[in-house]
Amino acid sequence: MTRTLILTRHAKSSWDTAGMPDHDRPLNARGRRSAVAIGQWLRAKGLVPDQVLCSSARRTRETYERMGFDTPAEVTDTLYLVTANQILRELSEATGDTVLLLGHSPGIGQFAAEILGEPPDHPKFDAYPTGATLIARFDIDSWEKLAWRGGAVVDFVVPRELLGEQTEE
């Protein structure tokens, strides 16, 4: 049996309000467009999560809402600004077959690099920019068996590719 992980960094957030706590920052206009595009891209690939693990930060919650899936998100403070090891622990408790995990840099990029047997051949993978989304498969029957270097890349994309924009941050 296999498990599928959709690992998404939140879309681009706004820095327009001086002094706003980091946890409360919303998406900016580009981030809102990007989140919709990521959701459409995943649905076009036939991927709909049956479990969603989401950081409690406003920008991650807004990213998920705009992706347009009906699966209720499990929103948790434990995914806000965490390390790769903490993400591994959280994911090891997952129960879905296809899990979408939404988080933050740098932990999410570090986790992506460590969980794969081979990284994708993509120039932006190491940077894991806002909205970056990895689809990985694991030959396991339970997330409890998740191990470093155990994943195989199915696909990786950054929003600018989906929106037809030429440069990346």
From TrEMBL:
Entries under CDD domains matching the protein: HP_PGM_like
Database matches in SUPFAM superfamilies: Phosphoglycerate mutase-like (SSF53254)
Listed Pfam families: His_Phos_1
Record InterPro entries: His_Pase_superF_clade-1, His_PPase_superfam
Superkingdom per UniProt: Bacteria
SMART domains in UniProt: PGAM
Official protein name in the record: Histidine phosphatase family protein
Protein source organism: Antarcticimicrobium luteum
